[in-house]
Design brief:
By secondary structure, the protein is α+β, with helices and mostly antiparallel strands. Helices cover about 45% and strands about 15% of the residues.
Length: about 350
């Protein structure tokens, strides 16, 4: 395997912990898999589009691996074998649950603010991913942060499970077509065909310039200005300050709400009628989400006497302006980012 995406030391068949784990020592198994948990979890998120689903998938995959450790023959690395187990686990979940969506996948944008919009609970929504969960280590063709950028993960959701897995294993993780074929119980020719189809779909949906490149180009000082300016505009109800940060073709979506807005006129009609005026008092904290700029929003609750967690806003930039705002609404998202439920 090309090991493009690994910085981890490989486990050899002579590792004493491997021998102990095969003998039923669960502590030894925990030591073996601990260095790999972060990258395996990120792989499950890319496959499934949900950090919560990734939790379940990783737990199930490690249980399968523990129970099937005797079948690990040591012809490859333990890491590659665990990726095989995790990928097959994710494919089972994809087959059972289908894909996750963003509002832009459901229908056309709204020209004017939709008041009284309610959450759609009948849709499996794509979720954000905390940068703190990303493993450390060297990068491959896709950098680690690029590989969880919102546009890339959202594009993956438009692929069938086998194409999704093939693309990730090849482009992100550095598996060969032969190794992927073994992982997915198919032929190398089928893998190459799946890769070709997957690349076409992803190329149509993912911008040529990644967020990592954009952030490097504009520099840390401008990044801080954008985050601070976005937060301050909402907190002050300052429409002019918000407009100054946006591109002309900006979009704003708020899963689990189905309505979304495209273009500065529609976005500002929504912003002026709702978050800038009628929602109440806001406070914000900067966060890292999907390798991009993120802001945690807290909204004043009179009964609680505090600002309660409301959303994680992931900001996508073009040059030094905000091209997309994806507000993942729900207090549960903030806990995932290790943030407090409320601000006094």
């Amino acid at each position: 395997m090309r090991e493009v995406f690994s910085g981890q030391k490989e486990t050899s068949t002579g590792d004493p912990d491997l021998a102990r784990a095969r003998g039923g020592d669960d502590a030894a198994f925990t030591r073996l898999v601990r260095p790999l948990r972060g990258e395996l979890h990120a792989h499950c998120y890319r496959m499934l589009g949900s950090s919560h689903d990734a939790d379940d998938a990783l737990q199930d995959a490690l249980l399968r691996a523990w129970r099937g450790l005797a079948r690990f023959e040591g012809r490859g690395s333990l890491r590659s074998w665990l990726y095989t187990v995790a990928t097959r686990t994710c494919l089972d979940i994809v087959e059972a649950r289908g894909r996750r969506a963003l509002p832009v996948d459901l229908g056309p944008s709204s020209d004017r603010a939709v008041t009284g919009d309610v959450p759609r609970t009948d849709i499996a929504w794509l979720g954000p991913y905390p940068d703190a969960d990303l493993p450390e280590g060297p990068a491959g063709r896709y950098e680690r942060r690029e590989a969880v950028e919102l546009a890339f993960v959202a594009a993956l959701q438009h692929l069938p499970g086998n194409q999704r897995a093939a693309l990730l294993l090849f482009e992100v993780l550095g598996f060969s077509a032969a190794e992927i074929a073994e992982t997915m119980n198919t032929s190398a020719a089928s893998v190459n065909s799946a890769l070709a189809r997957a690349r076409r779909v992803v190329a149509e949906r993912v911008p040529a310039v990644t967020q990592q490149r954009t952030l490097r180009q504009i520099g840390d000082a401008r990044v801080r200005e954008i985050v601070a300016g976005y937060s301050a505009a909402l907190e002050r109800g300052d429409a002019d300050a918000l407009v100054a940060l946006l591109t002309e073709d900006v979009t704003w979506s708020m899963p689990p709400m189905a309505h979304w807005y495209r273009g500065v006129e529609a976005v500002m009609d929504f912003a002026v009628r709702l978050p800038l005026t009628s929602c109440g008092s806001w406070r914000h904290l900067p966060v890292g989400a999907n390798g991009q700029l993120g802001v945690a929003g807290y909204l004043w609750d009179e009964e609680a006497g505090a600002h309660l967690g409301w959303s994680i806003d992931v900001l996508t930039l073009r040059d030094d302006r905000i091209e997309e705002i994806t507000s993942f609404v729900g207090p549960g998202h903030l806990g995932r980012f290790g943030l407090p439920a409320s601000l006094p």
